[in-house]
């Protein structure tokens, strides 16, 4: 059973998230919070596998809460709920260790998929979120965009061939188990590759590595996804 905490300052949003998650018999909501400070306290108390946080809340927001959760309860994964127009907040959240990003207006199935992916140790970026992040990174003009792509490709070139393969599937949101099945490797081997990839790319988490993968153009086509 995947244990979840929900944090949002709007009761209706919390109720909606709880209702969607309630359709999955393998998921249970163990606590709810109305702000980031309360979310951190409840995560420390209940130790859920995943905390679903609104990216902006009064007082202590989701980004600050994500950083504190990462520091004090690193085994809890963080999924951020965002709206369009919050690109800079998403980039900040990436740097603070959030590994899942979902649009509030997205499909209910995406919420369940994102929670399950993060609980399994994978990164999950809604396709809409990924597009917004990459577009934001590219917003500095053609020259800046080319420089970022070139820099991303140079970073990826420093990886081994196998690490580049793993990074590509990581960029698609695959879990270690899914990558292992796709590449016919032991899951422990994939985990070691992921650790090496993060270190070589100089990023702190899988979601940040996924952005590099998208910028470098090494992400497989969506039809290549496995269950």
TrEMBL record:
Molecular function GO labels: DNA binding
Protein name in the entry: Transcriptional regulatory protein DegU
Keywords assigned: DNA-binding, Phosphoprotein, Transcription, Transcription regulation
Domain of life: Bacteria
Domain Response regulatory: 3-119
Pfam families: GerE (PF00196), Response_reg (PF00072)
The organism of origin for this protein: Streptomyces lavendulae subsp. lavendulae
Phylogenetic lineage: Bacteria, Bacillati, Actinomycetota, Actinomycetes, Kitasatosporales
Domain HTH luxR-type: 152-217
GO biological process: phosphorelay signal transduction system; regulation of DNA-templated transcription
Transmembrane segments: none
CDD domains in UniProt: LuxR_C_like, REC_NarL-like
Residues with PTM 4-aspartylphosphate: 54
